[in-house]
Design a protein that fits this description.
By secondary structure, this protein is α+β, with helices and mostly antiparallel strands. It folds into five domains: 2-145, Rossmann fold, CATH 3.40.50; 179-206 and 481-593, Topoisomerase I, domain 2; 212-268 and 401-473, Topoisomerase I, domain 3, CATH 2.70.20; 276-395, Orthogonal Bundle (Topoisomerase I, domain 4); 606-696, no CATH class. The protein is globular, with a radius of gyration of 31 Å. The protein starts with a strand and ends with a helix.
Length: 697
């Protein structure tokens, strides 16, 4: 008897098969003496479409909403049905005694496997492989310590709740908006409140009226001082007051009133979770959140250098501490050799800042695996991202950054001027991450700057060499970058008015580390936002959508509550049935609010190009690969690059059969040249059809 191992991707399956000594390659699986290893291609099974419940849903009508099936059905995804068939046949083999779920160790990975099992009607025992890295050692250890499958039933329940909630809310509200306003409009429980944050920020910026203010700085010769009032504020919003202070100190000496030196200790930043890594990669290298996840996935799967990517923890567990020396040795090459050496010369004693079992849920922080590092095998992007991971991992094991901070107060004719200096006593972890010179998102020009201070004595008189007042203007809140948007999605508390709920959602947020990058990409794809340099700006379509959506769906409160409940369901602390009952009620109310709305939607990006399918003027939008033309008719839905000839349309259209017949007819009536082009299209169409047939076979 053998065990059937189900991985999420072919690449992972091949590595597992190699470790398990499976060498007999077959179509869709690899077999060995004890194991048969097969793979999904991401999701092979999904929730059924509305028309699978009732054919009337093929046409989008307001009268048919909301769609609330008594129970949700599953269906095999047509494009990958061949691989599902392979898995189902393997599951039915008489010599297969049990299944080992080896999909990604997380909520979505659990859903991938369980839905396949449900659709294939798996009834035999099953176990769970739960590992955080893809090294040979981790795989062997994982198979030696397989978990009982039922242990992860609550995680599966949470995954089902997430999927069904997205179906019930997303499809119902999307159809309601699209039918009501005859436009391609979408909405979702995470996508819409995220868009609302971007739109609201833009509204704040446009409403903002800059105000002039002045700051005053005095040069005392060997140091400078910045004016502050008694409450510590440095901005003067009245020019007359600024000039009065300037006149007051002119010709008067300064006296050092106070010198205060304080020893400071600054611990290393926490290890990376996915969101923090995405933020820093965006600030340092301009990576999108999706690109960071993709590159990290390569480091995890292909190179086996980094641990599981989709984690929300920035800590490791105590049982991992003995593995730290081996992980350090594996990265002690190139630029990291000299940084690692001091750590290997003594016993490692990591603190709770890095080791805390209570703060590790499904997976620990993103750290090196212990796989020997070969920098030459990495691409530039992989090197850059792994450099962030390695330096943060080393830094968290280094001592704190220690320094003496001196604050000097100089008084000139009753006006106070502040100076601040720093003397480094121990560079500590900053020796590792000296390259990390990211500006803090909340830094302002009110911050007292550091300067080199020579030895001074309290009571010394200082001559005022010069005095300047600087005029500035107040600034509006900054537009979101991907880094700051990820922060806002992770901690939406400041956007929630209810204080009790704001406290309750700490650690929850909009979406999960695994889904936030995809949400941002969806907003871009649907032309609700666009990138302008490093900033994310809402489009007219995005602004209008937020004005059309019900208030409950565009505020973070409801979504944050849902995410918190999903997390509790995964822990077995909340009811799946109660959650979904609430979602159904929400879907009903949201649809009713759209139907009752009297607002108007108007596209303002209409081009002069007609759709090759329906003849309506197309909309011009910005896509990933440049500007795109999208049919404004939601039923048609044709998309094409802005600059594209008929032959390109013929090759790329999702509605190829309909477009091709129109093109053939158009050119066949245009003389010999037209007939030749028509014949060319026919030949190409046949080749395309033959290619598809071969793939299906």
């Amino acid at each position: 008897m053998k065990s059937l191992v189900l991985a999420e991707k072919p690449s992972v399956a091949k590595e597992i098969a190699r470790v398990l000594k499976c060498s007999s390659k077959n179509k869709g699986f690899i077999e060995g003496p004890q194991y048969v290893v097969t793979w999904a291609l991401g999701h092979l099974v999904t929730l059924a479409e509305p028309e699978d419940y009732d054919q009337m849903y093929k046409q989008w009508k307001l009268d048919d909403l909301p769609m609330l099936p008594a129970s949700m059905k599953l269906k095999v995804i047509r494009q990958t049905a061949h691989q599902f068939q392979v898995i189902r046949n393997l599951m039915r083999r008489a010599d297969i005694r049990e299944l080992v779920i080896a999909t990604d160790a997380g909520r979505e990975g659990e859903l991938v496997a369980r839905w396949i099992m449900a659709q294939a009607k798996w009834k035999k025992p099953f176990k769970r492989l739960w590992i955080s890295s893809q090294t040979d050692e981790a795989i062997r250890e994982g198979f030696a310590n397989l978990k009982a499958g039922f242990v992860y039933n609550s995680l599966y329940d949470a995954a089902v709740c997430r999927a069904e909630a997205d179906w019930l809310i997303g499809l119902n509200v999307t159809r309601a908006l699209s039918c009501k306003f005859n436009a391609q409009l979408t909405a979702g429980r995470v996508q819409t409140p995220t868009l609302a944050m971007i739109v609201n920020r833009e509204v704040e910026i446009k409403k903002f009226v800059p105000v002039d203010y002045w700051t005053i700085r005095v040069d005392f010769g060997d140091y400078f001082g910045d004016w502050r009032d008694r409450s510590g504020k440095n901005r003067i919003f009245n020019l007359a007051q600024a000039e009065e202070i300037m006149a007051k100190i002119k010709g008067h000496p300064g006296v050092i009133k106070d010198i205060h030196t304080e020893g400071k200790s600054e611990p290393a930043p926490l290890a990376y979770d996915l969101t923090e890594l995405q933020r820093n990669a965006n600030k340092r290298y301009g990576f999108s959140a999706q690109k960071t996840l993709s590159v990290l996935q390569n480091l995890y799967e292909q190179h086996k250098l980094a641990t599981y990517p989709r984690t929300d923890s920035r800590y490791i567990t105590r049982d991992m501490v003995p593995t730290l020396p081996a992980r350090l040795k594996s990265i002690a090459v190139g630029p990291y050799a000299g940084l690692v050496q001091p750590l290997l010369q003594k016993k490692l004693m990591p603190t709770k800042r890095f080791v805390d079992d209570s703060k590790v849920t499904d997976h620990h922080a993103v750290i090196p695996t212990g796989q020997p590092l070969q920098l030459a095998t990495l691409s530039t992007d992989e090197k850059n991202l792994f450099d962030l991971i390695v330096r943060r991992f080393i830094a968290v094991l280094y001592p704190p950054y220690r320094y003496d901070q001196t604050t000097l107060i100089t008084v000139v004719n009753s006006e106070y001027f502040y100076s601040r200096g720093k003397v480094v006593k121990e560079l500590g972890w900053r020796a590792i991450t000296a390259r990390e010179t990211f500006d803090k998102d909340d830094a302002t020009d009110d911050t007292l700057p550091d300067q080199s201070l020579t030895m001074q004595k309290k009571g010394d008189q200082k001559r005022v060499k010069s005095c300047k007042n600087k005029k500035s203007k107040t600034k509006p809140p900054a537009r979101y970058t991907e880094a700051t948007l990820l922060t806002a999605m992770e901690s939406p508390g400041k956007f929630i008015e209810d204080e009790e709920l704001r406290e309750a959602v700490k650690g929850s947020g909009l979406g999960t580390p695994a889904t936030r990058a995809d949400i941002i990409e969806k907003l871009l794809y649907n032309n609700y936002v666009e990138r302008q340099g490093k900033y994310i700006i809402p489009t007219s379509k995005g602004v209008q959508l937020i004005n059309l959506v019900a208030p409950a769906l565009k505020t973070p409160e409801l979504t944050a509550q849902w995410e918190q409940r999903l997390a509790n369901i995964a822990k077995g602390k909340d009811s799946k049935a109660e959650f979904l009952a609430g979602i159904r009620q929400n879907a009903l109310e949201l649809v009713q609010s759209v139907i009752a709305d009297n607002a108007v939607y108007k596209a303002d990006n209409i081009s002069r190009t007609k759709c090759p399918l329906c003849g309506k003027l197309m909309l011009l939008v910005k896509g990933k690969r440049g500007r795109m033309l999208v049919c404004q008719d939601r039923i048609c839905g044709h998309r094409q690059p802005e600059k594209q000839d008929d032959f390109d349309v013929f090759k790329s259209s999702k509605h190829a059969s309909r477009v091709n017949q129109k093109l053939i007819a158009r050119y066949s009536d245009q003389g010999s040249l037209g007939q030749n082009l028509g014949e060319l299209f026919k030949v190409a169409l046949k080749k395309s059809s033959d290619t598809k047939q071969r793939k299906n076979n």
